[in-house]
Amino acid sequence: DTAVSQTPKYLVTQMGNDKSIKCEQNLGHDTMYWYKQDSKKFLKIMFSYNNKELIINETVPNRFSPKSPDKAHLNLHINSLELGDSAVYFCASSQDLFVDTQYFGPGTRLTVL
Amino acid sequence: AQSVTQLGSHVSVSEGALVLLRCNYSSSVPPYLFWYVQYPNQGLQLLLKYTTGATLVKGINGFEAEFKKSETSFHLTKPSAHMSDAAEYFCAVSPSLYDGGSQGNLIFGKGTKLSVKP
Asked: Is residue B38 exposed (0-12), middle (13-18) or buried (19+ Cβ within 10 Å)?
């Protein structure tokens, strides 16, 4: 069983479109995250959710919005996609926010044309 | 601001040779430290982590790392490289709350790609 899963694995779309990436974890964890990995492999946290509350919101454009329907899911919605949004997006989860191991999903490669 | 520096974006070793991947952090208060590995087209997997206690930490796949507070370093080593170790390795810190960190906020280095030659 996959611990952290993401769909889709690949997403190709046009500039200006709106898209969503779904994430689900079956580990019973309380905290979930979204990371962006750019073309140079640099990873940066975008959001984290703890018990359905947004805990961290770094300097991410408000075109990006996380949505958590329940503790096991944290979806990423992106409006008005731009070329610079092309990247690999990783979802992760951990038991809590305190020093705990984060388990990563396989990633979603987003390409904006 | 907290930062993580990984020296060498690409390290190449021969199979059976020592692997040494370097990581330094900037923090006035010791943070929590992690090494993650990313195999091609996959997500990240935890190798090992240091929180408190013994400064030499053993992880999976024969890797270990030593926390040296005086050098603000957390270098990753493996005595004998295997072909299957070829991957991207990321050092990360979770800054202490006493140093302006946010809970759960992992800050990653830029990664080191390890190549293993037969």
From this structure: buried
Q: Which of B34, B36, B105 sits opposite A45 (nearest CB)?
A: B105
Alpha carbons within 13 angstroms on the beta-carbon side of residue A112 total 16
Encode pLDDT of B40-91 as tens digits: 888 899 999 998 888 999 999 999 999 999 999 999 999 999 999 999 999 9
Strands (E), chain A: 4-7, 10-13, 19-25, 31-37, 43-50, 53-57, 64-70, 73-78, 87-94, 103-104, 108-112
In a mutagenesis test of the A interface, which of B3, B10, B44, B52 is the best target, namely the one with the most A β-carbons within 10 Å?
A: B44
**Alpha carbons A16 and B39: distance in angstroms, whole number:** 32
**A20-42 per-position pLDDT tens digit:** 999 999 999 988 999 999 988 88
